[in-house]
Amino acid sequence: QVQLVESGGGLVQAGGSLRLSCSASGISINNSGWYRQAPGKQRELVASITTWGSTSYAASVKGRFTISRDRNTVDLQMNSLKPEDTAVYYCKVTGRTGYDYWGQGTQVTVSS
């Protein structure tokens, strides 16, 4: 059974940092990524990392966020946070079968 457990969300002031962590069990991860969904907006890709370690970022977070992976844990280091980064953040992992699995989401709130 595949399980994804996210942690690390919370409330932070603008300019602060948070680190999100996604721990996966029951799966061999191929690619993975972090998404976010703000109220009234569509879910968007924030950052992704391939099985070979190649990363990509949304333009809005490039230079501030860093995605990393260690075995079955995928982290998102978020620095210089802005109020517009406020959203529910979701981890997504893709197994070697090509099937996607989503975490439960963790709230990130950045106050101005």
Task: Please give a structural write-up.
The structure is a single chain. By secondary structure, the protein is mainly β. The protein is built from no helices and eleven strands. Strands 2, 4, 5, 6, 9, 10 and 11 form a seven-stranded mixed sheet that branches. Strands 1-3-8-7 form a four-stranded antiparallel sheet, with no helix packed on it. The model has no long low-confidence stretch (mean pLDDT 96).
Distance N to C terminus: 41 Å
Bulk shape? globular
* Biggest sheet descriptor: 7 strands, mixed
User: Could you estimate the helical fraction of the residues in percent?
Assistant: under 10%
Mean pLDDT: 96
Content-based structural category: mainly beta
Our Rg estimate from Cα atoms comes to 13 Å
Beta strands, count: 11
The helix tally amounts to 0
- Helix and strand element order: EEEEEEEEEEE
**pLDDT < 50 stretches:** none
State the oligomer. Answer: single chain
Strand content: over 45%
Which features would summarize this protein structure in a list?
mainly beta, seven-stranded mixed sheet, four-stranded antiparallel sheet
Reconstruct the topology from this structure.
Layout: E1 3-7, E2 10-13, E3 18-25, E4 29-37, E5 44-49, E6 55-57, E7 65-70, E8 73-78, E9 87-95, E10 100-102, E11 106-111
Parallel strand pairs: 2-11
Antiparallel strand pairs: 1-3, 3-8, 4-5, 4-9, 5-6, 7-8, 9-10, 9-11
Would you summarize the structure shown here?
With 112 residues, the chain is mostly beta strands.
